[in-house]
Amino acid sequence: MIGIDIIKTSRMQRLMERFGERGLQKFLCDEEITLVKSYKTAAGFWATKEAFSKAIGAGIGAECSFKDIKIYKTDKGAPKLALSNSLVERFDILNAALSITHDGEYAISVVSVECNSPTTDKVKKF
To answer: Is 102 labeled as catalytic in the residue annotation?
Structure first.
């Protein structure tokens, strides 16, 4: 399954100017906040969590919260996903991959999720 999200980076800039770290704590854990170098990084993290929730078909809400998804970086700086046990079990997730990009005033993230269970993404026949 694939999810994608785009956010205008100025939205995140306003959130950070208005609420500071408290605004980031609404959707990031402490470890993620230490990775945020600018509002553009934060916007990419927001887009990633939204894209992931779309990939599993749940959206952000009761079944999948922002805090169920954690972004970390490899030694080479590549972003990766860590997921809560409850999320992995609920959606029978085997693997997830992501890509984040920034261009001008936008941050975009694409997330691919591999699940063990059948999904509704199968092609309908007519």
So the answer is: yes
Write out the H or E segment, with its range, that includes residue 53. helix 39-55
Catalytic residue from among 40, 54, 73, 80: 54
* Statement: 2-115 belongs to CATH 1.10.287.1490: no
DSSP per-residue codes, 56-80: TT--SSSSS-GGGEEEEE-TT--EE
pTM of the model: 0.91
Rounded Cα gap, residues 58 and 24, in angstroms: 22
pLDDT of residue 122: 66
Residue 117 per-residue DSSP state: S
